[in-house]
Design brief:
Distance between the termini of chain B: 35 Å
Largest sheet of chain B: 3 strands, antiparallel
Shape of chain A: elongated
Number of helices of chain B: 8
Structural class of chain B: mainly alpha
Helix content of chain A: 25-40%
Largest interface: A-B, 44 and 47 residues
Shape of chain B: globular
Oligomer: heterodimer
Number of helices of chain A: 23
Structural class of chain A: alpha+beta
Number of strands of chain A: 32
């Protein structure tokens, strides 16, 4: 007999199994649904990230700072070699003929240039072919390619730096249309041959890469598509894990879903990492072209394109500056591939391979090339713009910086130090220089240190030091504003004295040469920088009055009205000194010192202008007289060693300054179109062995010799008249007088001219009781 | 024929002697300054004259030389030297000048400007006519960098500034130009008129009156 229970027992276990497996399946199903939802969520999130990052404002573009564009016109003061230096700095290539934009050819004194166009604040300057002829130190002819004369042409301005955000990124954005086709073709051939066919991830590419990489000697390919590389650059860090790879692949697919090949390619061209410039990362081919070659992207030749594309694989590994052999080998490999893919002919390949690497010596993008001037620009901008506007909005800032003058200033300081090399302790001495055009108030060059590339303490703006005798013109100017009391030939007593100051202490100034010079003409006190006569004059006028003059000249500091200020105990920075001498050099008209001319937005909209401003602070006649004394300081006074280098036909005015114990050496001087203030001293304020004449005047003279300033204008102000005087006592000489054979011409404000000699005979015997050594010695020196 | 010419010459001289009327004598001062001691002073900022004697050059190929106030001309054809009491050298040009009905009416135009400066001033005038005062100011300043002491350029800059509403700047720039334009009484008169206008706008009526009287004295 069969037992019925066994049947029933078997059925429940089967049922259980069935139930159990159903449970497992349903659990699995639930998990799968959850997983899918999660995946969907992740995808949606990723998609949002992709879209947000990719559209809208993708890159923060720092502000670009440009030097002044070189203007060309017939008669301009410009030497051929300086013109070539400017073109070289701009990355113009010297070739046999100037056949395309960015090239030049030299034929003796004639230079043919194909300029690049540029979009300026005032309008567009077209690219054009020019012929510029030179004679001596000026432009003799200017014509277009057909020989027709041109009135005025502007070169594109030199990029001298940028204002970068803290994350140190930079771009020169290029549109896809602006990129040479050869570059995009080569890039695709090298990095992602199937770019136009895949959907973001290319299995073909991965397979090919595996195949290629196992066989040696062939071009090594990565399996990543351009899209994947873009994603990696754009979003993700350098992590190399499997999950990262999966993320990358998914995002690439999403990217391709939303954007077309052109947009992705354009983004890639602007995003790809191509080098490290100190703290700054070089992203994008536009910037890389400037960084490596100093040229815009569309000017690059095949060998340069090949190098840039080759670098993509590893900018540090293939760095053309640090690993030139590797870079060259990689470049040639790329060139071979270009031939292989039909992008180059055989002749082109041979020609390209024959080219050297030819990268710039150093990236001209780093804003450490001209740090002192960039510092000034930033400070002036901060007054009008927020930091975010400066570092993110792609502003274009046009300055008055003159790269040729800057180089001359740097060379001059270097040469001066070389000449002073034997002096003890010269290594501890630092320097600064400010160069402006007094007619416009524009700052053209700035040195913050004797090692100009060093972006450290900006002494030109921040080294506040006692100015010594540089203060003296203010005293004489104060006096000469009162023509009824003082003229250039008024008598001063250069004799020792003492005064008690407010504390009851005695102040007894001394001359530098520790001697008294007796009775002197007023102008000699300034020209020879005598302390005694100057201090006496200052006290006679009143220290507060002299302070007022200083403020009118442009000094903004509040100095105490102590007598010692008359001899330069007060401190200023070289920039502040320049502000004061600017007023002297510009006929008594004060102009703020400007470094910036105007600002354009990223898309070329005019944003702001810094206009020329002048304000008359002094009578032109009084200024002219002061300038005459400063001119004589150069011809017969403490500045005369400048004419060891500079031609005597160039009229210049200047003042030496030496502070106590020779801790500061100053010189401030100018021609018609150039004002320069030089300072030397130790950062620890220690004694140097330099006076104003032996230190700063040397640097100044060497600079002026190179810069060739225009001679001071001889045009007299309306209230000034030249009078012929006899030099021993300063009497005016009537025309009919024959007895006096030495006659000097001196300017006077109308109404203050010296009285004429009553008779010609009075001039002959010189009264010994009236005269002391001072005047006679001056006469002797003048005659020599 | 000769008689008629003589009559015309006399008539011309007579009308000239009949007192100075603005706009009646288109004299062009294209000379240099002669100092009291007889020395001829070349303006320092000008390049050597020989270089400028080329063909008329244009800034842009399609642009004609724009003749506008106060006294612009590009090529004097005949120069007749007339000795003046103020020891300035003036010359007579064959071209009529068109004067502006605005602020300044200058009777005796000033020396011929260098081609680049002229071109920029032309551009500035066009910009001013379009209402682009900022652009005009930028162009004139560009001209000023090339010829920093040229009072005609400063005059135009002051003019633009005044149009922009910057009376203080206009006054100071015009003042500077006065100091640089000795020997050009016509231009100085125009400058003083501009200064007077600026001072009026600043509320300095007394100063404006002084400036106007100086403008009259100059002629």
């Amino acid at each position: 007999m069969k037992k019925p229970q066994r049947k029933t027992n078997r059925r429940p276990s089967k049922k259980k199994k069935a139930v159990a497996s159903r449970k497992w399946w349903s659990l699995l199903l639930k998990l799968a649904v959850v997983g899918l939802l999660a995946l969907l969520a992740v995808l949606v999130y990723m998609d949002a990230v992709v879209q947000e990052k990719f559209s809208g404002k993708r890159w923060t573009i720092p502000a670009r700072v440009y030097a002044r564009p070189l203007e060309l016109y017939v008669g301009q003061k410009l030497r051929r070699d300086d013109f070539l230096a400017e073109l070289e700095a701009l990355g113009y290539q010297r070739e046999r003929a100037a056949s395309r934009a960015g090239t030049l050819s030299v034929n003796g004194q004639m230079i043919e240039v194909f300029t690049r166009g540029f979009q300026f604040y005032e309008g567009d300057e077209p690219a054009q072919r020019l012929r510029v002829g030179f004679a001596g130190n000026s432009v003799a002819s200017l014509a277009d390619a057909s020989g027709k004369g041109l009135a005025l042409v502007r070169l594109d301005p030199l990029l001298i730096g940028g204002i970068y955000p803290s994350h140190n990124e930079d771009r020169i954005l290029v549109r896809l249309e602006q990129v040479p086709k050869l570059l995009t073709d080569t890039l695709i051939a090298v990095e992602d041959r199937d770019f136009y066919n895949h959907y973001g991830v290319s299995l073909k590419s991965i397979a090919r890469a595996l195949w290629v990489n196992t066989s040696s000697g062939r071009l090594q390919q990565g399996g990543s598509t351009l899209t994947q590389q873009l994603v990696k650059n754009f979003f993700l860090t350098n992590e190399r894990s499997l999950s990262r790879k999966v993320n990358e692949a998914l995002m690439s697919l999403l990217l391709e879903l939303h954007y077309d090949k052109g947009e992705i390619l354009e983004a890639y061209l602007n995003e790809v990492f191509l080098g490290q410039d100190g703290q700054r990362a070089v992203h994008g081919f536009g910037l890389a072209s400037q960084y490596y070659f100093g040229q815009p992207l569309h000017e690059l030749q095949p060998h340069q394109i090949a190098l840039l594309v080759g670098i993509v694989k590893g900018p540090s590994y293939y760095s053309p500056r640090r690993q030139p052999e590797r870079a060259l080998a990689r470049r040639n490999l790329v060139l071979d591939l270009m031939l292989d893919q039909g992008l180059l002919t055989n002749e082109q390949l041979v020609a390209a391979k024959a080219q050297p690497l030819a990268v710039n010596k150093q990236g001209s993008l780093t804003n450490t090339t001209y740090p002192a001037f960039m510092d000034l620009v930033r400070r002036q901008l901060r007054e009008d713009y927020h930091d975010e506007d400066l570092t993110e909005e792609g502003l274009r800032i046009f300055t008055s910086f003159d790269v040729v003058l800057q180089r001359k200033a740097e060379d001059a300081v270097a040469q001066a130090f070389k000449q002073l090399g034997a002096r003890k302790g010269i290594d501890e001495v630092e320097a600064a220089m400010v160069v402006t055009d007094p007619q416009t108030g524009e700052v053209q060059a700035l040195l913050g240190s004797k090692t100009p590339r060093f972006a450290g303490f900006n002494r030109a703006l921040d080294a506040v030091r006692p100015i010594g005798s540089l203060v003296k013109p203010a005293i004489y100017l104060t006096a000469l504003q009162q023509p009824d009391r003082y003229t250039l030939t008024s008598y001063l007593q250069d004799e020792a004295f003492s005064v008690k100051d407010k504390k009851g202490e005695l102040w007894s100034p001394q001359n530098y040469d520790r001697t008294e010079h007796g009775t002197i003409f007023l102008y000699q006190g300034l020209a020879s920088s005598y302390n005694l006569s100057t201090a006496r004059l200052g006290l006679e006028l009143g220290v507060p009055k002299v302070m007022q003059t200083l403020h009118q000249l442009g000094m903004e500091r509040d100095w105490p009205a102590y007598p010692s200020m008359l001899l330069g105990a007060g401190s200023l920075s070289p920039f502040e000194v320049t502000r004061m001498y600017q007023t002297l050099a510009n006929g008594g008209y004060n102009s703020p010192l400007r470094a910036i001319r105007n600002v354009l937005s990223a898309d070329g909209q005019p944003l702001g202008r810094y206009p020329l401003r002048v304000e008359q602070r002094f009578d032109e006649g009084a200024i002219y007289l002061t300038q005459e004394a400063l001119r004589r300081a150069m011809t017969e006074g403490t500045g005369r060693s400048a004419y060891n280098r500079i031609g005597r036909n160039i009229r210049l005015a200047g003042k030496t300054g030496t502070s106590n114990d020779m801790r500061d050496s100053w010189f401030a001087g100018y021609g018609q179109d150039l004002l320069a203030v030089a300072w030397m001293g130790r950062d620890d304020n220690g004694q140097t062995s330099l006076t104003g004449a032996t230190g700063s005047l040397l640097a100044w003279s060497i600079f002026m010799e190179k810069a060739e300033p225009r001679s001071l204008a001889t045009q007299l102000p309306e209230n000034i008249v030249n009078v012929q005087i006899e030099p021993s006592e300063g009497w005016a000489i009537p025309e009919q007088c024959q007895a006096v054979d030495t006659v000097v011409t001196m300017p006077y404000i109308v109404g203050s001219e010296p009285l004429p000699l009553e008779s010609c005979l009075e001039a002959a015997p010189i009264q010994e009781t009236q005269k002391t050594g001072g005047v006679k010695n001056w006469l002797k020196r003048w005659l020599n | 024929m000769k008689k008629i010419l003589v009559l015309v010459a006399i008539a011309g001289l007579a009308s000239g002697c009949g007192g100075t009327m603005r706009n009646s004598i288109p004299v062009v001062d294209s000379g240099t300054t002669v100092r009291p001691d007889g020395a001829v002073v070349q303006p320092q900022s000008q390049p050597s004259h020989g270089v400028r004697q080329g063909p008329v050059v244009v800034y842009k190929t399609d642009e004609k030389p724009y003749i506008s106030e106060p006294e612009v001309m590009t090529m004097p054809t005949e120069a007749i030297m007339v000795e003046h009491e103020e020891k300035t050298v003036v010359s007579r040009a064959e071209q009529q000048m068109i004067t502006d009905s605005g602020v300044a009416q200058v009777a005796s135009p000033s020396p011929r400007l260098d081609a680049p400066v002229q071109a920029l001033l032309n551009t500035a005038q066009q910009q001013k006519n379009r209402g682009d005062l900022e652009g005009a100011a930028a162009s004139v300043e560009r001209a000023q960098r090339i010829a920093p002491r040229e009072p005609q350029v400063l005059y135009r800059l002051a003019e633009v500034r005044l149009a922009q509403g910057d009376a203080k700047d206009a006054e100071q720039i015009a003042q500077r130009a006065v100091g640089l334009s000795s020997g050009q009484p016509g231009l100085q008169a125009g400058l003083w008129d501009l200064i007077a206008e600026a001072r009026e706008r600043l509320g300095d009526d007394a100063g404006a009156a002084v400036a106007r009287s100086k403008a009259r004295v100059n002629l």
